[in-house]
Amino acid sequence: MTNSTAGQDPAEAQTPTPTPASDTSAGEATTPAEAESPEDADPSEVPSTEDLEEPSTEKDPGEEPKAPKREEPEPDHEAVGIGVVDTEEPQAG
């Protein structure tokens, strides 16, 4: 570890300095009152339907990615495990 002062340390390494809250009556944090139900909540606190909607991940039929067309025939081998075994004739399976 090097000897450095707080002014020399990167911002991530420095301990944040607490700032006084606007309401310092008892030095305790206070939370706003919660509504009993969404109907009773302050309208500014309730998200709109548009805010809650998630974007669609579905694509239109014209936007779907297409596999490239193969110009060569299917290979004459069969994949087995992680290796490939060449075969002379197609095996009925």
Q: Can you describe what's shown?
A:
Helix content is 4%, strand content 9%. It is mostly loops and 93 residues long. A hairpin with a 2-residue loop joins β1 and β2. It starts with 48 loop residues before the first helix and ends in a 7-residue tail after the last strand. The relative contact order is 0.06.
Q: Could you name the key traits of this structure?
A:
93 residues; little secondary structure; two-stranded antiparallel sheet; 1 helix; 4% helix; 9% strand; elongated
Poorly predicted sequence stretches spanning 5 or more consecutive residues: none
Strand content: 5-15%
Strand order of the largest sheet: 1-2
Gross morphology is: elongated
As a whole number of angstroms, the C-alpha radius of gyration is: 32 Å
| Distance, first to last CA | 67 Å
Largest sheet: 2 strands, antiparallel
Question: Helical percent range?
Answer: under 10%
Mean pLDDT: 70
β-strand number: 2
Q: Helical element count?
A: 1
User: What is the N-to-C succession of helices and strands?
Assistant: HEE
